[in-house]
């Protein structure tokens, strides 16, 4: 007699399979959405010239097309098109919607140019002339384009030198001025020797003199910045753009496939290594990449030994009983505590209590300005370590449970101590499980934002936690994080349309970084397993 589908269990197998397929479909759909929208943020789009009703004209790249919402149901579907027209400083908004039935004609003009600017985003239009000191150097499209291309590389080098002097050299002087100021205050407070005070005052005077020299150098560099590009927009208005404000100039309507590929690679590379601009909606995300990776690595260095030692104690040394059971329950429940609670704990304990104590004992001269008594990458890493350490503890305990009792007894029978057995026999065997827990911890730490927002992450960090000043690694400094960058650009930016490509690109980059970190740990785990298999043979 044939059993019903309920009794054979086939229905349950099909049900679990369907759920797995649906979950995989959702993951793949999410990744595809990020991939398509993230990549398109760097791929060049042609500039279309639109002639509209009423004699109005627009120039821009098509970004979206949709049915006009809330139109009359008795009418046929009407569509509208969104274009990026740039020119934010001229038209107040760089994105605009146009009803398709109001577009009279669309043309693709080969001489339409796109200027990538350091301020106000892209400028779209047609080249009119190039001027220096008010004199016209070149007129017409070809001559103006040639004049710009011949001068732009030199101008970008000049801007880079200006940035280096204003940030690196001036920053170095400001750093040592602050150090000497704090030292001078301490000497005066302690009634130190007059000669020592005079020595510090002399050092401050020399630094101020050096600062004035840099000011003259900056003024000389600025005086060499000449040139204005005259551009006519689609609406007929004429505007002037200083050459030092232009980063790149390109003609997207003339691009072939390899030109587009080169543009894509160049823009993606600059996205990785440049600093952000325009309230994080333009430029790159290098400080956020650096902060994210460094925070995850610091968190791993703290969480891994803490979690492994705790797991070893609970499984290998602690006597079973009510107390140990309660600790295990508490560890398991920690994984369900909202992450913002860890952030609040980090602020109260690490920043105010520990950091405030460090400031009072070691940085009293700098007070009331806090050094460690404010958010920083060290406190953020410690908070994230507390957040993720239960995962490492549980995975370590589960790994230890899988090591057979005979392995331990054989080691002890050969004369090894319990410490030698744990260190040389059990730990290598359980290392793959530890790395599995660490992989999960790293993935969660890289994606969490809420605890970081109150323990050290900022919208724009003026300097990286690592630089050339002693002690080179500055754990007290605030940092940028890709997760917070996504939140800030996506939900805090006043220009939502301009921020959308950056949100997709940054999200895709964050997932790629998490994937790379996880793949590194998986590769290490695989090597350890292979090594253990060989040693067992």
Automatic annotation (TrEMBL):
One of its GO terms (molecular function) is phosphate transmembrane transporter activity. SUPFAM superfamilies: MetI-like. Residues 197-224 form a coiled coil. GO terms for cellular component: plasma membrane. The keyword Coiled coil applies. Signal peptide: none annotated. It holds the Pfam family BPD_transp_1. It is found in: Cell membrane. One of its GO terms (biological process) is phosphate ion transmembrane transport. Residues 289-521 form the ABC transmembrane type-1 domain. It is a multi-pass membrane protein. The chain crosses the membrane at residues 12-36, 285-314, 334-355, 375-395, 425-443, 502-524. PROSITE patterns: ABC_TM1. Keywords: Cell membrane, Coiled coil, Membrane, Transmembrane, Transmembrane helix, Transport. PANTHER family: PHOSPHATE TRANSPORT SYSTEM PERMEASE PROTEIN PSTA, PHOSPHATE TRANSPORT SYSTEM PERMEASE PROTEIN PSTA-RELATED. Belongs to the binding-protein-dependent transport system permease family. CysTW subfamily. This is Phosphate transport system permease protein PstA.
């Amino acid at each position: 007699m044939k059993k019903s589908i309920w009794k054979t269990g086939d229905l349950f197998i099909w049900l679990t399979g369907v759920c797995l397929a649906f979950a995989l479909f959702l993951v793949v759909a999410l990744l595809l959405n990020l991939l398509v929208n993230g990549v398109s943020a760097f791929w060049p789009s042609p500039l279309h010239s639109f002639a509209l009703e009423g004699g109005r004209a627009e120039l821009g790249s098509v970004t979206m097309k949709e049915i006009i919402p809330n139109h009359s149901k008795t009418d046929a579907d009407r569509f509208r098109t969104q274009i990026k027209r740039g020119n934010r400083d001229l038209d107040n908004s760089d994105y605009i919607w146009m009803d398709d039935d109001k577009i009279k004609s669309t043309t693709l003009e080969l001489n339409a140019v796109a200027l990538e600017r350091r301020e106000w985003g892209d400028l779209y239009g047609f080249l009119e002339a190039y001027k220096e000191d008010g004199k016209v150097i070149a007129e017409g499209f070809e001559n103006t384009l040639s004049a710009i291309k011949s001068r732009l590389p030199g101008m970008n080098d000049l801007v880079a030198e200006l940035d280096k002097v204003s940030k690196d050299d001036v920053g170095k002087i400001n750093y040592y001025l602050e150090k000497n100021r704090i030292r001078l205050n301490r000497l005066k407070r302690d009634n130190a020797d007059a000669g020592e005070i005079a020595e510090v005052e002399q050092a401050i005077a020399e630094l101020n003199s050096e600062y004035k020299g840099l000011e003259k150098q900056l003024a000389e560099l600025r005086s060499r910045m000449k040139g204005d590009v005259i551009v006519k927009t689609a609406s007929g208005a004429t505007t002037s753009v200083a050459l030092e404000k232009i980063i790149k100039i390109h003609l997207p309507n003339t691009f072939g496939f390899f030109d587009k590929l080169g543009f894509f690679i160049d823009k993606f590379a600059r996205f990785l290594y440049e600093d952000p601009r325009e309230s994080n909606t333009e430029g790159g995300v290098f400080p956020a990449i650096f902060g994210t990776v460094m925070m995850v690595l610091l968190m791993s260095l703290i969480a891994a030994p803490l979690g492994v030692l705790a797991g070893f104690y609970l499984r290998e040394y602690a006597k079973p009983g009510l107390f140990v059971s309660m600790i295990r329950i508490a560890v398991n429940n920690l994984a369900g505590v909202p992450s913002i609670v860890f952030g609040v704990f980090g602020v109260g304990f690490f920043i105010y209590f520990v950091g405030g104590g460090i400031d009072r004992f070691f940085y009293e001269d700098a007070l009331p300005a806090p050094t460690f008594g404010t958010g920083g990458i060290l406190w953020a890493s410690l908070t994230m370590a507390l957040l993720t350490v239960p995962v490492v503890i549980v995975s370590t305990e589960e790994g230890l449970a899988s090591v057979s009792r005979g392995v331990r007894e054989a080691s002890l029978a050969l004369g090894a101590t319990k410490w030698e057995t744990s260190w040389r026999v059990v730990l290598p065997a359980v290392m793959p499980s530890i790395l599995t827990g660490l992989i999960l911890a790293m993935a969660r730490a890289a994606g969490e934002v809420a605890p970081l927002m109150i323990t050290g992450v900022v919208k724009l960090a003026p300097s990286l936690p690592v630089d050339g000043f002693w002690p080179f690694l500055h754990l007290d400094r605030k940092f940028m994080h890709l997760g917070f960058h996504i939140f800030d650009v996506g939900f805090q930016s006043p220009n939502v349309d301009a921020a959308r490509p950056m949100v997709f690109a940054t999200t895709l980059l964050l997932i790629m970084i998490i994937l790379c970190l996880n793949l590194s740990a998986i590769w290490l785990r695989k090597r350890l397993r292979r090594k253990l298999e060989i040693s067992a043979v």
